[in-house]
Amino acid sequence: MSVGLEAAYVHIACCVANVSARMFSKYAYSEVKKRELLSGAAAAGISVAFGAPVGGVLFSLEMLSRVCCCVSAAVSPRSRPLYPP
């Protein structure tokens, strides 16, 4: 499966962020902070690949909001289904 040049940029950015996170105790011991750092790195990789800085930020926010939306829907006892029948 070919994913193109975009995947390489995102992968390199996330690898650099992961190695950098190990150097600082603030990120090394906190999975939440590490996820935030990796999300920012993925946004930077998308920005570089497409030459659109705002697009990378929007991609990152979309991924974070999707996860937050699903978690809040699963945790909330009175939540409506995401897709009505």
Broad shape: globular
The end-to-end span amounts to: 34 Å
Mean pLDDT: 75
- The poorly predicted ranges are none
Walk me through this protein's architecture.
The protein has 85 residues and is mainly α. Helix content is 79%, strand content 0%. It has 4 helices and no strands. Helix 1 (4-23) runs antiparallel to helix 3 (31-50) and helix 3 (31-50) packs antiparallel against helix 4 (53-75).
Give a brief outline of the structure.
The chain is mainly alpha-helical and 85 residues long.
Task: Give the arrangement of secondary structure elements.
Blueprint: H1 4-23, H2 25-28, H3 31-50, H4 53-75
Give keywords:
mainly alpha, 4 helices, 79% helix, 85 residues
